[in-house]
Write a structure and sequence with these properties.
disordered N terminus; transmembrane; olfactory receptor activity; mainly alpha; 75% helix; 0% strand; 144 residues
């Protein structure tokens, strides 16, 4: 089971890996020397980050699913045990377990929401890069 954060991630990944000339030393001309160096460094950095994210996603996706399933199961079991327990001390003990599991699930969802937010932010920045970062000629060269 894989976790896909954003639908545009695949498009952005394909665009970053499809840029020609970033696998070797930067091609420098007098006119675009600084821009080309920064572009190559930036693209190489993002390619490495994407590879690391794919690797981490493959490693941790099963563990995250198991943790989510265990939290939901523990919440259901705690609710059931609270309803059938007659002793007040035991009921308060089970209630603390229930609250802890619900809190864990809410934190898990909040972190997932934060990851989704930042992944979409990265995609939006890519689409709305202004002319202050790269010249029009450089943008035309990297567009597919």
């Amino acid at each position: 089971m894989k976790q896909y954060i954003g639908s545009g991630r695949k498009i952005l990944t394909d665009l970053l890996f499809g840029i020609p000339g970033v696998g070797y030393r930067p091609v420098v001309t007098k006119e675009y020397e600084d821009e080309r160096k920064l572009l190559v460094i930036c693209v190489n950095h993002h390619q490495k980050l994407i590879k690391i994210c794919y690797l981490l996603n493959d490693i941790f996706s099963y563990g995250h699913f198991v943790q989510l399933a265990a939290s939901v199961m523990a919440i259901c079991v705690s609710c059931y045990l609270i309803t059938i327990e007659s002793d007040a001390n035991e009921r308060s003990f089970l209630l603390s377990y229930y609250i802890a599991h619900v809190t864990q699930l809410l934190v898990y969802c909040a972190v997932s929401n934060e990851l989704s937010h930042w992944s979409f932010t990265i995609l939006n920045v890519y689409h709305f890069v202004g002319d202050t970062y790269f010249s029009r000629v450089t943008k035309v060269k990297i567009e597919p």
